C-alpha cells in the first residue's frame, strides 16, 4: 500500500512571554500574553496587546488552547493569529508549570493549529495557508513554538 506523506515548510519561530494564569472558573484560566516575537524567512513581527490564551482545563489534566495574538510586522502591517491546540499534562507537569518551571517540548505533547488573517496585500498569502505548531519550550513565563506551513 502506498502511504501518502505530508510535506511541511518551516514558517517561523513564535516566542511569547506571558503573565501567571488568572483563574476564571475551575475549568478555565486566562493567560495574558505580554509580548513576543515571530521570526521567519518570509516575515517578522512583534506580538502586541491585546493578546492572550483562554485555556480550558480538562478533567484528565490536559489543556485545550484557545489563543489569539495581534502581530505587527517589522514593516508596519497588522496580522491576527488565532489557534486552538492541546497540551498533554499530568499531575507532575501541572505542578512544575504552577511552580514556574520551564518544560521542554520533548516532555509533553503541545501542538497547535495556527490561522492567520490580514488585510495586507503583502501578507495576504497568510490568509490561505494551513499550519501546525510544535512547542519547544513551555512554562516559566515563556512559550516557544516552531510553526510549519502544510504544503
Automatic annotation (TrEMBL):
Q: Which Gene3D superfamilies match?
A: 2.40.160.20
Name of the molecule in the record? Uncharacterized protein
Pfam families to which the protein is assigned, alphabetical: DUF3237
The species is gamma proteobacterium HTCC2207
Amino acid at each position: 500500500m502506498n502511504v501518502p506523506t505530508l510535506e511541511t515548510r518551516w514558517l517561523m519561530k513564535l516566542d511569547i512571554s506571558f503573565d501567571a494564569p488568572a483563574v476564571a472558573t475551575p475549568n478555565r484560566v486566562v493567560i495574558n500574553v505580554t509580548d513576543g516575537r515571530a521570526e521567519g524567512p518570509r516575515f517578522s513581527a512583534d506580538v502586541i496587546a491585546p493578546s492572550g490564551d483562554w485555556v480550558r482545563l480538562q478533567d484528565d489534566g490536559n489543556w485545550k488552547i484557545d489563543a489569539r495574538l495581534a502581530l505587527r510586522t517589522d514593516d508596519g502591517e497588522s496580522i491576527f493569529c488565532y489557534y486552538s491546540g492541546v497540551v498533554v499534562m499530568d499531575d507532575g507537569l501541572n505542578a512544575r508549570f504552577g511552580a514556574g518551571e520551564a518544560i521542554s517540548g520533548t516532555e509533553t505533547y503541545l501542538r497547535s493549529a495556527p490561522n492567520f488573517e490580514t488585510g495586507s496585500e503583502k501578507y495576504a498569502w497568510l490568509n490561505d495557508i494551513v499550519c501546525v505548531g510544535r512547542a519547544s519550550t513551555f512554562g516559566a513565563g515563556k512559550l516557544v513554538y516552531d510553526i510549519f506551513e502544510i504544503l
